[in-house]
Amino acid sequence: MADLTESGIDGMSERAWQCIDAAQVVVADLDGCLAQDNRPLDGAATFVRRTAGRLVVVSNNSTHSAAALAELLRGRGLEIPAARFVLAGELAVATVAQRRPNARMMLLGTQEIRKVAIQAGLRLVDETPDVVLLTRALDARVHDLEAAVTALHAGAMLVVANPDLSHPGAGGVPRIETGAILALFKAVLPSTLSLVIGKPEVLLFQTALDLSGARPDRAVMIGDNLTTDIAGARRMGMHTIHLAGASVSPESVSVLARQE
Predict the structure, then answer these.
(1) Is the domain of 14 the same as that of 81?
(2) Same structural domain for residues 167 and 94?
(3) pLDDT by residue (tens digit) across 130-168?
(4) pLDDT, tens digit, for every residue of 6-43?
(5) Are residues 72 and 140 in the same domain?
(6) CB–CB of 60/198 below 8 Å?
(7) Same domain flag for 113 and 67
(8) SS3 209
(9) What gap in Å lies between CA 22 and CA 39, rounded to an integer?
(10) Which strands form 3-6's sheet, in the order they lie side by side?
């Protein structure tokens, strides 16, 4: 199994490209790999063109739908079909819809994810939910967080889109992520258990393999985060290429979330 390290998506070695060209499916992270703050990195457009038809973007993004993200990136010069995205936020919504279809759900998230939940037929409530779904809630207020804590204290199930504490923003400045809010919940309610959907858990990787029909040993994962992208792919038995030049520290992923 190939386990390579490169500095970034631009100017990868011949050995890395041999691994990519031999793969039936090329699975790539978005933030820090192909884009930063959803702005394409150098070499990303060339990479996308070269892997067209085999590329699946697997991201812990929990703010956008695949359609909205594809449109945003297309406007910035990165052409990836919406059907080739596997996103933690959308998959978290789908998981709740499948496992608890009749549940009352409190959602901490963007309007885009709220639309996804409504389209999935979920019943969204502000009080006494059966399930609290935590995604990257850009506009969450203290009142919203306290309402979620009240619900969790009363026994609501907690589903978390992704465990990342942060992701790299412009100029390398960390951006607050879903896992930071999860850490807050666990600080207030230490016994809280959660179902985590995103990387390094296997569901996003398995969904990408199912989408392509490939076995793990015919897939290569390209990502910048050793703790989510690379560790999760290795667990699946996939080849990996770590982009070390854009790496974030292991502390960027919630250790608390990984212990569930």
Answers:
(1) yes
(2) yes
(3) 999 999 998 899 999 999 999 999 999 999 999 999 887
(4) 999 999 999 999 999 999 999 999 998 999 989 999 99
(5) no
(6) yes
(7) no
(8) helix
(9) 28
(10) 3-6, 239-243, 219-223, 25-28, 55-59, 85-87
Cβ atoms of 140 and 108 within 8 Å: the answer is: yes
Continuous H helices in the chain? 14-22, 44-50, 66-74, 88-99, 111-119, 142-153, 178-188, 202-212, 231-236, 255-258
H helix or E strand, kind and range, residue 33: none
In a domain, 259, yes or no: no
Q: Is residue 112 part of a domain?
A: yes
Q: Give yes or no for residue 255 having a pLDDT over 90.
A: no
| Inside any domain, residue 258 | no
pLDDT tens digits for range 82-122: 999 999 999 999 999 999 999 999 999 999 999 999 999 99
Are 207 and 81 contained in the same domain? yes
Does residue 256 belong to any structural domain of this protein?
no
Average pLDDT over residues 119-129: 97
Q: How far is CA 235 from CA 31, 45, 186, in A?
A: 21, 29, 26
Contact 64, 72 (CB under 8 A): yes
For the chain, what is the mean pLDDT? 93
Q: With contact defined as beta carbons under 8 Å apart, do 128 and 151 qualify?
A: yes
Instruction: Quote the tokens at residue 111.
Output: 């309007």
Q: In this structure, are 189 and 96 located in the same domain?
A: yes
What is the total count of domains within the chain?
A: 2
As a whole number, mean pLDDT of residues 189-193 equals 95
Q: Which domain holds residue 82?
A: 3-87+199-248
